[in-house]
Amino acid sequence: MKKTLKALLLGCVAFALVGPSTAEAADPGRTVLTFLKIGVGARAAMMGDAYVAVADDATASYWNPAGLLKIESNDVVGMHNEWIQDLRHEYAAVGVHRGRHGFGASFVGLYSDDIQARDDTGQEAGIFGYSDIAVSGSYAFELTEDLGVGGTIRYMRQSIDDENLSGVAFDFGGTWQTPVEGVEAGASMRHLGGSMSYDFTDAGSFDLPTTLQFGLAYRKIGFGGGGGLLLAGDILVASGDDASFRFGGEYKIREQFSVGAGYKAGLDNEDISFGLGYEKGVRLNYAFTPISNDLGDSHRFALGYAW
Question: Per-residue pLDDT for 41 more than 80?
Answer without folding.
Answer: yes
